[in-house]
């Protein structure tokens, strides 16, 4: 398993993906800056507050990195099936299911770490921007972290689990577009779910249900689809 992990990390190309994460975070900073400046300078708008801005951060981080996770899944897994390059690896004396599991673990961990970095950088940015330029309504209170930290951790956990759905549908269809489209549908469904919660995040029962359903379909995919090469 360790050998497979080292092999797949080389194929993963960590530095280009880290650069993408940094670019995505900078894009979010630019988006937040435009939003805060617009609400601050337009007399017809209500000034953004910390709570609403944090919710925007959660939405941006989740959307960008969940979609990117589907792109990684399409490139590292679905694409190898479509191009039949996976048959080269399958000809080696390795456990095929372990190989795919390692790929998924790398994608999930990368998504979780990137989202965590995004939350830390963007929350720090809005606090610093407000301190320097008074861009948000009210003042930052350390008590905000009591809400922000659990919300961020739940979102990261949920999205790490949801990265498996592009894999599930993509493997069933053996289709790269299906994997990408699945991520978009997943984002939409998640937003519908959390919009009904006052904290605007998954509850513990919802998170457990998502994990259980995802585990069942992932198990099915590993049993029925991994060894099929079309």
Automatic annotation (TrEMBL):
One Pfam family this sequence matches: ABC2_membrane_4
Key words of the record: Membrane, Transmembrane, Transmembrane helix
Keyword Cell inner membrane: no
Keyword Transmembrane helix: yes
Transmembrane segments: 12-34, 54-78, 99-128, 148-169, 176-194, 206-222
Name this polypeptide is given: ABC transporter permease
UniProt lineage: Bacteria, Bacillati, Bacillota, Clostridia, Lachnospirales
């Amino acid at each position: 398993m360790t050998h497979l992990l080292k092999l797949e990390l080389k194929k993963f190309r960590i530095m280009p993906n880290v650069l993408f994460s940094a670019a995505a975070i900078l894009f979010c900073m630019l988006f937040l800056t435009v939003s805060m400046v617009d609400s601050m300078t337009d007399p017809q708008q209500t000034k953004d507050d910390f709570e609403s801005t944090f919710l925007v951060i959660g939405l941006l981080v989740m959307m960008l990195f969940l979609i990117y996770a589907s792109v990684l899944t399409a490139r590292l897994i679905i694409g190898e099936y479509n191009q039949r390059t996976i048959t080269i690896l399958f000809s080696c004396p390795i456990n095929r299911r372990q190989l795919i599991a390692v790929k998924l673990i790398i994608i999930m961990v990368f998504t979780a770490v990137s989202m965590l970095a995004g939350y830390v950088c963007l929350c720090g940015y809005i606090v610093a921007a407000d301190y320097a330029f008074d861009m948000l309504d009210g003042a930052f209170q350390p008590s905000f972290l009591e809400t922000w930290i659990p919300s961020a951790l739940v979102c990261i956990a949920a999205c790490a689990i949801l990265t498996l759905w592009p894999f599930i549908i993509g493997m069933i269809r053996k289709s790269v577009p299906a994997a990408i489209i699945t991520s978009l549908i997943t984002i939409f469904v998640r937003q519908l779910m959390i919009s009904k919660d006052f904290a605007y995040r998954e509850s513990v029962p919802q998170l457990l249900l998502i994990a259980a359903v995802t585990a069942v379909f992932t198990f099915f995919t590993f049993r029925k689809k991994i060894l099929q090469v079309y």
